[in-house]
Amino acid sequence: MTHRTALITGGGSGMGRATSERLAREGKAVGVLDINRKSAEAVARIISDAGGKAIALCADIADRRQVEAAVHELRGVFGAIGVLINNAAVENFCPFAEIRDENWDRLIDTNLKGAFIVTQAVLPDMLAMRWGRIVNVSALGAQTGAPNMAHYTASKGGLIALTRSLAIELGPRGITVNSVSPGFIDTPMSRRAIDGGLFPVPYEQIIATYPIPRLGQPDDVACACAFFTSEEAGYITAQVLGVNGGAAV
Q1: Domain CATH for 41
Q2: Tens of pLDDT, residues 125-148
Q3: pTM surpassing 0.90?
Q4: Of 152, 203, 210, 235, which one is the catalytic site residue?
Q5: Most buried residue among 90, 97, 162, 198 by CB atoms closer than 10 A?
Q6: Parallel, antiparallel, or unpaired for β 240-243 and 175-182?
Q7: Looking at the domain assignment, is residue 249 inside a domain?
Q8: Is residue 111 part of a domain?
Q9: Residue 152 designated active-site
């Protein structure tokens, strides 16, 4: 089966956009899902203008009804979904003692529960095909910890645990589940934090300690996601691949 339908959450910008464009170039029909409809439409238009297949979808992934409606729309246009990239996320910087319940809930609901909801929504297609590729985009902080980001890193650490449990449960059904763990990637989310001075030290000092001392690019993450979704990765599951310039192993 050389043609697959892929759903990429948070596909309207940053790593999600790069991954949507990469999978489309590889021949997959792509559902670009984003809470920002205009961003999703812009990426879908870029893919279509380049000769690929894409549809823009809008949903808050923490809302099951919105997710199910978007998945239904994607199936109706491109058929059964065989590839899922759980990439959508929100961030917040706050000392642990000052985190409010609503901020904790927002990050867990989007970053972790959202992946749970979207995965459940597409899973019946993969089970029916006895083939599937799920990639959960975690974060370097989930492996190393990060100051003022306990709620963010907890949500991303949960994604790693979810990855490993699903890999064990779904492997016998022909479905692989892996995680890509980005380090400091040059995305709109990172730029907001840099411009807002939200890191404890200037970001240049952070990346200067990396074996590869530079910001990563969204395409670096897209390449890792593309590999995990390929036929060649069919015997690889439950893995966490750090795309972080060597900042963690």
Answers
A1: 3.40.50.720
A2: 999 999 999 999 999 999 999 999
A3: yes
A4: 152
A5: 162
A6: parallel
A7: no
A8: yes
A9: yes
